[in-house]
Amino acid sequence: MLGHHYTRTFLESAVASMNAGCNLELSYGLRNNVFMHIPQALAMGNITLQMLRDRVRPLFYTRMRLGEFDPPAMNPYSALDLSVVQSPEHRNLSLEAAVKSFVLLKNVRGTLPLRGQDLPGKRLAVVGPFADNPRVLFGDYAPVPEPLYIYTPRKGLEMLPTNVSFAAGCQEPRCHQYSRAEVVAVAGAADVVVVCLGTGMDVETEAKDRSDLSLPGHQLELLQDAVQ
């Protein structure tokens, strides 16, 4: 609220947040955060002790239900490790969630889905800075997965019964250095071309916004070359 000029001080922000019903502040790594001023607000009479108790109660109720105050032996979650989290059952569930969350904006001439029975003998090209770069596939607030379980578009398409060729065109999302010849050669020899473009955290994250929605660097040129 301070950054958006809704309030002038952390103290005012704390009071406004408490009055609005907010009881949790995302302040990781900030020693002087907004809610550290709650004792001062209470002493000045800007908030009441009852209000403070009302805000804190659901927080501790949730933490108690999660077992945070129980001995580790009483908490069933304390025995979980990566072998459970990354079990085949959980990975299959993650795959199902990913498949069901795709948004298809257009499907000109019924291009998708690519059917396995139609692919033998076909040549498939996957191009672009996001085609085979695991590092750029995750956005802000994403977990850090085990590299073993990361499937890039190239790696996934290579599981299909077809000949897959690859050209990044540019190595990073900013796409300052673009190899047109590389993309044209691969795309020109293919029956189906999958172009993988985007931004990634190199280009935009929280507090690092862009002034437009244009593809960065030479990515638009890469797309046009692939289409042509």
From TrEMBL:
Pfam families: Glyco_hydro_3_C. The gene is Xyl2. SUPFAM superfamilies: (Trans)glycosidases (SSF51445), Beta-D-glucan exohydrolase, C-terminal domain (SSF52279). PANTHER family: FIBRONECTIN TYPE III-LIKE DOMAIN-CONTAINING PROTEIN, SUGAR HYDROLASE-RELATED. Keywords: Glycosidase, Hydrolase. The lineage of its organism: Eukaryota, Metazoa, Chordata, Craniata, Vertebrata. GO terms for molecular function: alpha-L-arabinofuranosidase activity; xylan 1,4-beta-xylosidase activity. Residues 103-226 form the Glycoside hydrolase family 3 C-terminal domain. It comes from the Eukaryota. GO terms for biological process: arabinan catabolic process; xylan catabolic process. This is XYL2 arabinofuranosidase. The keyword Endoplasmic reticulum does not apply.
